[in-house]
Amino acid sequence: MYVLCLKTLFSFHSYVIGRWVVLSCSEDLVHMCQSSANISDVALSIDRGQWGTAQCPQGYAFSLPQTGYVNRKLYVAATNTNTSHVWINLPASAK
Ligand SMILES: *[C@@H]1O[C@H](CO)[C@@H](O)[C@H](O)[C@H]1NC(C)=O
Ligand SMILES: *[C@@H]1O[C@H](CO)[C@@H](O)[C@H](O)[C@H]1NC(C)=O
Q1: Does residue 40 line the site of ligand 1, with CB under 6 A?
Q2: Which keywords appear in this protein's UniProt record, sorted alphabetically (predicted)?
Q3: How confident is the model over 18-63, as pLDDT tens digits?
Q4: Probe ligand 2: pick from 82, 83, 84, max atoms within 8 Å of CB?
Q5: Can you give the pLDDT at residue 49?
Q6: If DSSP codes are grouped into helix, strand and coil, which group holds residue 7?
Q7: CB-based contact 79:23 (threshold 8 Å)
Q8: Ranges of each domain in the chain
Q9: Is the beta carbon of 81 within 6 A of some atom in ligand 2?
């Protein structure tokens, strides 16, 4: 059995904001972080890691885009740092 995780896959050349795809949790990626005080405040993790292992800045927690606006904030944060793939806190499992 393999545990799969979801990540966002951004396109830099289209209006598609974000697409969720499934891949192995063992890939090292930056994580989506969200302020616990303000869900519109999105940041990326300080380091990269396997799904669920990267560190968020203080006051932020590993999260997922709950709204289109939050998704847009994640897109901006990712494009600003040339990040094409971001782990989101939505695990999926498959055999
Ligand atoms: C929440 O965060 C967003 C994005 O950083 C910001 O525009 C907004 O002003 C913040 N809201 C509050 C109440 O701090
Ligand atoms: C992102 O990539 C562009 C084009 O390759 C480059 O000009 C820019 O310096 C990069 N920005 C960062 C933050 O790495």
Answers
A1: yes
A2: Membrane, Signal, Transmembrane, Transmembrane helix
A3: 677 777 888 899 999 999 999 999 999 999 999 999 999 999 999 9
A4: 82
A5: 93
A6: strand
A7: no
A8: 2-94
A9: yes
